[in-house]
Structure formats: structure tokens, C-alpha cells
Amino acid sequence: MSTLVAAQAPEARSSSGFRLAMLLPGALVTFLLILFALGLVLFLAFRGNDGSLLGVGLTVDNFVTVATDPLYWTVTLRSLVIAGLVTLATVVTAYPVAYYLAFHAGRRRGLLLFLVTLPFWTSYLLRVFAWKIVLAYNGVLNSALIESGIWSEPTLAFLNTPAAVVVTLAHAYAPFAILPIYVALDTIPKSLLEAASDLGARPFTAFRRVVLPNSMPGVLAAALVVFVPTVGDYVTPAMVGGPASTMIGTLIQSQFGKANDWPFGAALSVCVMLVILAVVLVARSADRRFGSRT
């Protein structure tokens, strides 16, 4: 018995050493790219701006400016509203696609999943620029409306509007919403649907009482995956939005760029992170509530 234990001890040590060696690269990347960057942002947020890279002194003036200047509250609220509309539009349009993939795609499921992920093969900037061409004054949409006789001349009502930002972002993040909802729907046991049918439930009733509640974790995950990055997006508002579509990410980028005020940009970033953290906590609470019900 002691011989067997002695033989197993080196094997256990080598196994633990192998696991440590495999975990070490990921841990280092996590520390350097995430924790270090987050710590640097927090450090800069409490520094004063003197034109240098790391600022000077320790101060809370940056947060006081964010809290007292109505401009930042207005832009933050606009960012939350646009991100909320994008999330709603994306989830509402993604759910039917995910439902079809999970229950009706059959042998075509692999091909359709490939088509869903196909936008990942193209640049995000390229997709945004494509929407700019579609919505432009002499773009595809205006040309189609004029050719069909609906309008007699082009209009500026499509481009440089909040609606253009919502449509562009919803299209860009659609695959990120379809996949988690599909996974949640695909894991629902088919026996639950069969049991609902055997008990006389109509298709809509089975969907409302069985499918929808069990798919809510995927819906919430999709909502978070879309909402979190769109709050801080600045590329899309800059390309297809106008002054009325300025989002908080645009202001943060300008502080790190033209304004050369890194401490204030870091303070804005920290405030946005706190807002997003509150949204994530609310979503987690809702996820637990749905989980306890199902």
C-alpha cells in the first residue's frame, strides 16, 4: 500500500505542475492586460492634468467635474438610451433566428450557423462604412426610394441621426445576440415540449410557459453582450451619427486624443464602468430570479 502511495505522489506532483504551467500564461495575460490597465485607469482618474502622460498630484476634481457638468450627464443618458435601443432591437430580431436554428433548422443548422458567424470574417469598420454608403444622401436607400417613385429627391433623414447609429450597431452585434440565445434554446430538453403537448398545451402556450422562461438566461446574456460594448462605442457615432448622436465613448476618446487630458478621460471611463457594473448586477439579479422560477 505504501509503495502504491509513493508511486502516485510524483505523478500527482507532475500533474499539478502541468496544470500550473498551463494556467500561468493565461494568468500573466490577465494580469498585464486587464488588471494592470484597470489599475492604471484608476490611478490616472485621481491625477491632475499638467500635460504629462501620468498627470500630477492627487485630486478628485475630475469626478467633481463629471458630477456637476450637465454635458456629461446628458451624453451619458443618451449613450444609455441608444445602447438600450440597440440591445432591444438586437435581441428582438435575434430571438426568432435563434429559435429557428434550435428547433426547425434540421440538417441546415450547421450551414446557417456558419452564415450567422460570417460577419466575424469582415472588419467591423468595413461593416459600419457599408451602412454609411447605404444611408448616405446619394446612397443605396435613397436611390431605391427614388427609383421606386416613393420619393422624388434624396433626403438627409437617414444618415447622421441616432436612428442610423441604432440600426448600424444592431446589425453589427446581431451575431453576438443570436449565439447565446441559440445555446439556451438548444439546451432545453425536448421532453418538456413533448410533455406540454401531451397535456394539451397549444404551441404558443408551450412557448410562453416552457420555451421562453428557460431561454431567459440566454436572452439576458445576449443583452449584456450587446449592451456593454455599445455604451462605450465611439466609432459608429463618429461615422454614421451626427452631433445629436454623440456618445460617452466619443468624449472619452477626445480626452485621450485632441484634448490630451488623460486624467479626465480616465475619470470618465471609471464613471462609465460603474454604470455598466450597476447594469450587470441588475442583470445578474434578474438571471437568478428567472433561474429560481424555472
From TrEMBL:
InterPro entries: MetI-like (IPR000515), MetI-like_sf (IPR035906). The chain crosses the membrane at residues 20-46, 80-103, 110-130, 163-185, 206-228, 264-283. It comes from the Bacteria. It is a multi-pass membrane protein. The keyword Membrane applies. It is found in: Cell membrane. One of its GO terms (cellular component) is plasma membrane. The keyword Membrane applies. Pfam families: BPD_transp_1. Gene3D superfamilies: MetI-like. Residues 76-283 form the ABC transmembrane type-1 domain. Signal peptide: none annotated. GO terms for biological process: transmembrane transport. Keywords: Cell membrane, Membrane, Transmembrane, Transmembrane helix, Transport. PANTHER family: INNER MEMBRANE ABC TRANSPORTER PERMEASE PROTEIN YDCU-RELATED, INNER MEMBRANE ABC TRANSPORTER PERMEASE PROTEIN YDCU-RELATED-RELATED. Belongs to the binding-protein-dependent transport system permease family. CysTW subfamily. This is ABC transporter permease. It comes from Mesorhizobium japonicum.
